Amino acid sequence: MFSFGSGTNNARLKALDVINANIMIADANLNIIYMNEAVRSFLQEVEADLKKELPRFDMNSLVGSSIDIFHKNPGHQRTMLASLTKPYSATITVGHHAFDLNVTPLKNGGTTTGFVVEWADAKIRMENNDYRSQLIAIGRSQAVIEFTPEGEIVLANQNFLEATGYALSEIKGKSHRIFLPAGPAGDEEFEQLWSQLRQNKPHIGDILRVRKDGRQIFLNASYNPITDENGKLVKVVKFATDVSDRVHAVNKIGEALSQLADGDVSFSIDTPFAPTFEPLRASMNNAVKRLGETLVSVSRAADLIESGSRETSQSAQDLSKRTEQQAASLEETAAALEEITANVKNAAQRSEEARGATAQANSSASHSGRIVSEAVGAMARIESSSGQISNIIGVIDEIAFQTNLLALNAGVEAARAGEAGKGFAVVAQEVRELAQRSAQAAKEIKELIRKSSEEVQSGVKLVSETGEALQTIQEHILAVNDHMQAIANASREQSIGLSEVNTAVNQMDQMTQQNAAMVEQSTAASATLAQEAARLHALISAFALPVSAARAATVARPKTAAAPPPRAPAAPAAPARAPAPKRQPVVSGNTALKSDDWEEF
């Protein structure tokens, strides 16, 4: 029986102040009447988190308060505590904290006089339970074996026994050395491993071990030293997974990669792998096969490129020569066009000068025509004057004839007069002679005038013909002038056209030279391409191609384009996803884990 307030019990309460247990006491009305120093310190550490969930919680006024401040549903706890007859344990969570509670009812006969509550942090216990669950889970999936610090076998789970082919009775108490290869190498490995473990250094990695039947197995293992609270090594636990299938697959793939590195693509991995790694073998075989087919296609393409490059290089060289010849011809053509242009310009200038001279000749012909017309008029006037002179000469001739006649009559009369008329007869004779000479002179003058008139008429005719000829010449000069004008215009246009042609030819010459330079570059590029194609062919020849593919590579080159690359292998179907585990409802607040009987505290 426990009675509060008595001296003995007060002494007991003082004794509770110095123990490490977290003790809280409530009376029968569930009012807190005592807390030892341990529980005060314990609750003060979590006071801030408790206030977030329990706003009425206050360490300063906790003694004397009802335990209802810890409850969200006080009625449930009061009902349960009223019927409590023996100690009760529960785990509750408040915020991020978990607490283990041990409630013991204080009895006085059949009456409950109070309750003693022991508080404990449930974190360590829950972590230990979690660690234990994890170890159980690991033991279900991995091989586990325990050793003493000296390397003697203590325990081994079924996975380890199945992996090594031993029974536990066959290996318990024996040295770990039985799993290592025989010989000095195994001895050295054993000593190094356990020297490291005794220094509390774990060992993790892939290891080679020997089964009971002598076969080798590969394990992915971790040797974990376990120490006590003082850091002393108490045992070594090894977790391992049999990775022999993986190592076998990796080794085979490594050998295949070595063959690939040596240029051999004529092989395939025929030994099946474990089902997990079989897609890897298929993928490797497909990769090697596709690579071989690709290299064969590349070899064919290299042959075609090399042949085409040689042909292109030869064609480029021929084109380069023809382009150089064309450039030289264009250069000569440009020079000839320059000379022709200069000659045409000179001819145009000469045509302009000839047109000016023709215009001047036309002006001179017009002036000569006017002079000829005046000469024709003067000749007409001369002819008229000659006619008048001829008339005057006729009068003189008649006068001479009359004079002669009078002189004859005078002579007759003088003869009749005899001596007296003898002197007169002499005069008459003289007059007669003068008249005869005058008549003769008039006759000669008349003849001269007649001839002169004929010459004048001939001159007038010639002058008229000259005028007509000059008129014709003027007309021809006008026509020539028109033609010279047309020739001058045509020469000018031809000069302009030839200048443009000369410019175009110069541009063509420059472009041809540029083309020649580009052809030289193309020739060099073709030669380089041919060299690289030969180099590529040499590189391809370093590979050992599949027999069928190599035979196909020696066939005549196809005329069509290269075949399209092979289709990539279909990706393996993804494994069916396991159904997601059902999520447990989240527990919040200070709800107890055993919700069926202890809801809150």
TrEMBL record:
SMART domains, per the entry:
MA (SM00283), PAC (SM00086)
Q: What InterPro entries would the database entry show?
A: Chemotax_Me-accpt_rcpt (IPR004090), HAMP_dom (IPR003660), MCP_chemotaxis (IPR051310), MCPsignal_dom (IPR004089), PAC (IPR001610), PAS (IPR000014), PAS-assoc_C (IPR000700), PAS-like_dom_sf (IPR035965)
Q: Keyword check for Secreted, yes or no.
A: no
Alphabetical keyword list: Chemotaxis, Transducer
Show the Gene3D superfamilies listed in the entry. Answer: Methyl-accepting chemotaxis protein, PAS domain
Q: To which protein family does this belong?
A: Belongs to the methyl-accepting chemotaxis (MCP) protein family.
Question: Which NCBIfam families does the entry link to?
Answer: sensory_box
The UniProt entry, under SUPFAM superfamilies, shows: Methyl-accepting chemotaxis protein (MCP) signaling domain, PYP-like sensor domain (PAS domain)
Where does the record place the HAMP domain? Answer: 244-296
Q: Name it.
A: Methyl-accepting chemotaxis protein
Domain PAC: from-to ranges: 203-255
Q: Give every Methyl-accepting transducer domain span.
A: 301-530
Chain segments carrying region Disordered: 306-330, 346-368, 558-601
For bias type Low complexity, the affected ranges are: 570-583
